[in-house]
Structures are given as C-alpha cells and as structure tokens.
C-alpha cells in the first residue's frame, strides 16, 4: 500500500500584506504600554499644573478676602458720614438730652481717629475723620473719612470717602414742606432786603429814602438790586414815609451806588452793656475811608446826630469803582468824638461783629475792621461807643437758631486800635 503526503502551503490573509504588518512580522515583536520615562514626564507636567492651580486658588482666596474687607470698610465709612449728617442742632445745648447730635460735635478743623472691629471679622479697622471749612463756600465743611487696615498678608489697605456737610440748622428743612408761590420768590415788602425798612415804595419798582430826616436829599433805590440809582432834592420838611415821585426834583443819576448804613449807640457803664446801651448819644458821625481806586467821587454820609437821645442812625452812599464787578474796599470810622487822647481817650469805638457763617473770619456783611471788594449794599453795620478806659464787650451766649437765639452781641475794637 502506498502512502502519499501532500504539503499544503499556509494561506496568509490579504490584509497581512500591508507595509506595517510586514514590518511587524519582520521585527518579530510589537510595542505594548508606555515607558517609565514617559510616565515620569507626565507626572512632572501634572505636578506643575497642580502647583499652578494651588497658586490660583490662593490668589482667589486672597482676592475674595480683600473684597469682603473693602466692603466692610466702605460700610464703615458710609455709616460714619451718615452719623455726621444726622445732627439735629448746630451747637450742643448746655443741657442736651442723651442721643442729641450737634454739628459742632464734628469739630471742623480737627482730626478724629477711632478703631472698629465688625462682628465675625478678622480685621481691625482704623477710622480717621478730617474736616475743614470750604475756602470758597461759606458755612460748608469739607469732610474726609478714611478707613485703613492690614490684609491677610500684612499689606496696608486704605479706603477714603469725601463729602460736603452744610452747617445749616435742620429746623429750616421744614420750609421744604411749604409750597412755593407762583412766580419769583418774594422778598420782604417785595424788594431787596438791603433797602432800608423805612424807605417809601414809590410803586414803580423803586423806593425813596432820606438819609437825614431833616435834610434835603433823598436816594432812590432799585427794588430788585438794592442799589441806589438816583440822588434827588426834596423838601427838608417832608418825611420819608410821605415822599411821592412828584416830590423828587433835580435828580442826578447814580451808577453803581452802594448803600451802607447802621446805628451808633453809647454805653458808659463798667462793664459796658452791649445788649441794651443806656448812655445818651454824643455827637458822632460815620466816615468812609477808601483804599480801593477808580471811584468817580468820594463817599457821602448822612446821620441824625443830635435829633435822637440814645442812638444815631447813619447812611452812606459809596460809588463803586470801574472794576468788573464794580466794588469798593476800605473802612468805616467815627468822627466827632475823641478816641486818640493819651494815655486814656474819653471814648473807645467798638463795632458789633460775629462770625455767623463760621468760616473763621468776619465777612463784609459781618462788619470787619476793613472791608474788601464790597459789591453789594451793607445794612446793619452797627457801632457801640464806650468809655475809653473800658474794653469792648464780648457776648458769651451761643448763637443758636434752634433756641431762637439769632443774634450775638459780641463787639471788637475799631478805634483807636483795630482788631480783626
């Protein structure tokens, strides 16, 4: 019996003939997994990423912490400003009830510092309040509240808020509830308050006034501006209250006529009485000395000296200069009385003056020793004449509109020595 053996060639699938497979077959092995070096490099890259992520998280935490601290600081500063604005009186009364807040408590011109730590806060804040009177606006305080602290890493941080607070009594806020009349806001007697109360309204938007009751001169005021526009001749026997337009003759036009008036009273007691001067008036007259230039004529003053026993009323017409706006600067002093004899003159002249708007210096309306750049009429520029051996009296009472105390009787020396 014959046995035959057949050799059958292995059939290789067609896809095994591709180039990559041929190379694999040629090498006899295939790559599997990654090497240790590659793993270490990947771990190193991931480590750098984790470190950067930790830094970012730390920065975010500090930024969130700082934002919360700034929010607290702003709340503290706003609360402090609200407290300063919550005053109910200007000057603190002697027997003020608990909880009363006064504008004077702010201490304009001083620096006040305190510390505050809010509940659940990890920071102690230092609150500093500084204030000063405005250099341009009377009766206005410029206030800054600064809050400082150290953040989580010890860096100094600061937040500051600025505001303006007016020294205006809150009682006047009640006027906001009163409806305004239709048209222009009305002035006393429908004219400028700078016009003398006793001036006669002529019915043509002007008023007439005799600066000397027994004289033959009358001044005509513009009711709106309070300036003198004419100087006229009138009968010496006519009173201001009886003047009509037909009584004004020989009128000369006046340009930039500024009016200054006041009273001169006398007190010879020791100490002198500034509230109720008791002495008989001596012959005295007001005189204006100009230090400004460019005026078309010298000032003219009238008074009723010798016609009343206890007070002299004076009135002066000062023509403004050629500046824009037209102004005058100078001083008002009294003549006719001896204030110069040494060592002790018979009389000493004091002027009533008080810093009503609390700006640190008497303004033109508040009767300074020397007027500067006056561009409006000035009524109520009053004097007190005392014995030469006495000192000008000072009123110790507090100017307090809330207590209906609207006047302070403080005086300062004008002659022979001036004090600001």
UniProtKB/TrEMBL annotation:
Transmembrane segments: 39-60
Region feature Disordered, mapped onto this chain: 183-204
PROSITE patterns: PROKAR_NTER_METHYL
Keyword vocabulary terms for this entry: Membrane, Transmembrane, Transmembrane helix
UniProt superkingdom: Bacteria
Keyword Transmembrane helix tagged: yes
Taxonomic source organism: Roseateles paludis
Protein name per the record: Prepilin-type N-terminal cleavage/methylation domain-containing protein
Family annotation (InterPro entries): N_methyl_site
